[in-house]
Amino acid sequence: MEDDNKTTYKYKDYYKVLEVEYDASDEKIRLNYRKLALKWHPDKHKCNDAATTKFQEINEAYSVLSDPDKRLDYDLNGNYEINNYTLPEYLARFKGMILTCNGLGMSQDSVWSEQLTEFNKLTDK
């Protein structure tokens, strides 16, 4: 649906659908898409509606995340259900908005980004 040139996305966490990090590179998104599309392709799961639905969801996620304009729009305007995120997921998902604060002139290599990296290392153990 279109509304004032902004797309409203029915909430799906496309990054989770493609099993990639929120700051994944285009290459990582493409590789995971191919892996998942092959795994869930309807030809491999004949007469399985759940697999077909999963395959369609994967294609939908890739169509948004593989297009730089759609991905930016999704990242900025997606419907975020914050209660569905753990703290590390929340920080990873929104670090671009929280930490870089381009309007404030903070860069990606700021002290805050270093602290988030350290936090992620601690929580991954």
UniProtKB/TrEMBL annotation:
<feature type="domain" description="J">
    <location>
        <begin position="13"/>
        <end position="78"/>
    </location>
</feature>
<dbReference type="Pfam" id="PF00226">
    <property type="entry name" value="DnaJ"/>
</dbReference>
<dbReference type="InterPro" id="IPR018253">
    <property type="entry name" value="DnaJ_domain_CS"/>
</dbReference>
<dbReference type="GO" id="GO:0005634">
    <property type="term" value="C:nucleus"/>
</dbReference>
<dbReference type="GO" id="GO:0005737">
    <property type="term" value="C:cytoplasm"/>
</dbReference>
<dbReference type="InterPro" id="IPR001623">
    <property type="entry name" value="DnaJ_domain"/>
</dbReference>
<dbReference type="InterPro" id="IPR036869">
    <property type="entry name" value="J_dom_sf"/>
</dbReference>
<protein>
    <recommendedName>
        <fullName>J domain-containing protein</fullName>
    </recommendedName>
</protein>
